Amino acid sequence: MIGRMKTIASVEFGQTGEILARLKKQAIPAEIRTVTQDSGLEMSEIIVEDSYFDHGCDVVEAWDAERLAEQKKMSRVYCRRCGSQNYDWTWDERLGYIYKCKDCGDDFVT
Ligand SMILES: [Zn+2]
Which residues in the chain land under pLDDT 70? Predict the structure, then answer.
């Protein structure tokens, strides 16, 4: 008997590879369904059988959290004056991180 299929993730077209690999690692069979949104944007829905739904959602959540952490790392801090990423920083309890640019000598906080 085939269970009901449920969507565990809706991601941009072509972004399914990593999630599918993770699902495969957890032995969760999944399928891709391409849907076109009203805006014309194509999205890929990852669907699994009902019995795999909870487990599948956990996998997607873990992937999403890691992706967000990665994005945070990418959006680094730049010097306010010269745009350099060459700086030292110190932690101040009141102000948070204080950066000192090695290129132009400017102090800045974010
Ligand atoms: Zn600078």
Answer: 1-2, 73-75
